[in-house]
């Protein structure tokens, strides 16, 4: 399958075995993979509540494996196929529970993936442990890994910080289980898919680690949560799902999602990485002269500018940062924001304004 054929798969769902389908696609053709594979829950007899009513668990054939070895071989097979499709600077997310995530983690490390974070999805409304024989299982684990240690993976740090009210996004995510109108139901009013993931969870995954226009592969597409969020956020998706009933539900669900027409809405916070400017450049360009005096904002401390771009005060000499730290008896100091010079009107002006001049010139070259 060539690039044109792969592009034709964008925003579609393939009704097929994921390993077979992935092996037919062109290598290095997707930016991100989100995998929600079978957990191999190893459930035996039916779970009962104290009133003897049945607990809705995962008993489907797709979650059953003859042994741990069989599960490991299956994991290696789908992960190898997925890795081949991932671009060199791409990344993988995989979610699981204590039943499988540790085995999955070892396998992905053995394949050369580089783990960036493990995320704890703390379910704020977990199913209780009805037998009272263990702790209530209230979380699942997501592993976020780049294709290699040297991959230049995407991480929208500022966007995630903004999403979290201007506080760094932590690795514990408090998100409820998929319930209410979001939960797809079958003809009998029961859960259509036993492990449908909440849209809020995929929102964070996709928002944090992709760019607008990126292609996301979900080899265990289920009822299409990945596709729903990808469409909402202006990303492309390729879904692979073996169960025709799930495919039908996913296609209908995604079709009901309205694409964002105003692309400005898809922009997100991202601090531009500004070019480094040594203070010596300010001196050699004549914006300050050797012998000029710099002051702190209160004029309590001062230092003289030297010809090599260093400063000398009464008790220290060195860079603008070192001399500023010495003046405040502090372990560190941002000299660009600490030091001021006098303009023609004897007003103090922060030397960072001079750095901004040189950066603006560099952008216009």
Largest sheet: 8 strands, mixed
Tertiary shape: elongated
Number of helices: 12
Helix content: 25-40%
Strand content: 15-25%
Helix and strand sequence: HEHEHEHEEHEHEHEHHEEEEHHEEH
Summing up helix and strand content along with how strands pair, one would put the structural category as alpha/beta
* Overall strand count: 14
Strand ordering within the main sheet: 1-8-7-2-3-5-4-6
State the low-pLDDT regions, or none: 46-50
Integer-rounded radius of gyration = 28 Å
Q: How far do the termini sit from each other? A: 43 Å
Explained architecture:
There is one protein chain. The protein starts with a helix and ends with a helix. It has 12 helices and 14 strands. It has helices at 3-8, 18-23, 68-85, 101-110, 157-163, 199-209, 225-232, 244-255, 279-284, 320-328, 335-338, 352-363; strands at 12-15, 30-35, 86-96, 114-123, 139-146, 172-175, 215-218, 236-241, 293-295, 302-305, 311-312, 317-318, 340-342, 348-350. Helix 3 (68-85) crosses helix 4 (101-110) and helix 6 packs across helix 7. The strands form 3 sheets. The chain has an 8-stranded mixed β-sheet, sandwiched between helices. The protein has a 4-stranded antiparallel β-sheet with strand order 9-10-11-12, covered by helices on one side. A two-stranded antiparallel sheet has the order 13-14. Strand 2 (30-35), helix 3 (68-85) and strand 3 (86-96) form a beta-alpha-beta unit. The model is unreliable at 46-50 (pLDDT under 50). It is of the alpha/beta class and 365 residues long.
């Amino acid at each position: 399958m060539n690039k044109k054929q792969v592009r034709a798969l964008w925003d579609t769902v393939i009704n097929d075995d994921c390993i077979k389908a992935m092996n037919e696609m062109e290598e290095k053709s997707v930016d991100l993979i989100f995998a929600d594979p079978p957990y191999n829950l190893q459930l035996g007899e039916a779970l009962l509540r104290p009133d003897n009513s049945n607990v809705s668990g995962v008993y489907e054939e797709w979650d059953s494996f003859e042994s741990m070895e069989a599960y490991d071989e299956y994991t290696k097979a789908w992960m190898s196929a997925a890795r081949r499709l991932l671009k060199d600077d791409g990344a993988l997310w995989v979610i699981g529970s204590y039943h499988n995530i540790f085995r999955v983690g070892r396998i992905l490390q053995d394949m050369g993936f580089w783990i960036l974070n493990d995320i704890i999805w703390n379910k704020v409304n977990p199913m209780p442990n009805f037998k009272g024989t263990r702790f209530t299982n209230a979380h699942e684990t997501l592993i976020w890994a780049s294709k290699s240690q040297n991959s230049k993976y995407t991480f929208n740090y500022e966007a995630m910080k903004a999403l979290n009210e201007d506080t760094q996004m932590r690795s514990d995510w408090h998100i409820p289980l998929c319930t209410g109108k979001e939960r797809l139901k079958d003809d009998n009013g029961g859960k259509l898919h036993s492990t449908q993931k909440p849209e809020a969870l995929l929102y964070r995954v996709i928002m944090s680690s992709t760019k607008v226009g990126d292609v996301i592969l979900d080899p265990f597409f289920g009822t299409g949560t990945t596709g729903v969020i990808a469409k909402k956020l202006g990303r492309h998706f390729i879904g692979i799902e073996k169960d025709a009933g799930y495919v039908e539900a996913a296609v209908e669900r995604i079709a009901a999602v309205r694409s964002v027409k105003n692309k400005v809405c898809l922009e997100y916070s991202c601090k531009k990485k500004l070019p480094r400017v040594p203070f010596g450049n300010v001196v050699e360009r004549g914006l300050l002269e050797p012998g000029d005096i710099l002051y702190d904002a209160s004029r309590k401390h001062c230092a003289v500018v030297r010809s090599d771009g260093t400063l000398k005060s009464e008790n220290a000499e060195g860079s603008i940062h070192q001399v500023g730290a010495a003046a405040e008896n502090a372990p560190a100091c941002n000299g660009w924001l600490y030091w001021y010079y006098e303009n023609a009107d004897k007003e103090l002006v922060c030397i960072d304004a001079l750095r901004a001049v040189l950066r603006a010139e560099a952008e216009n070259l």
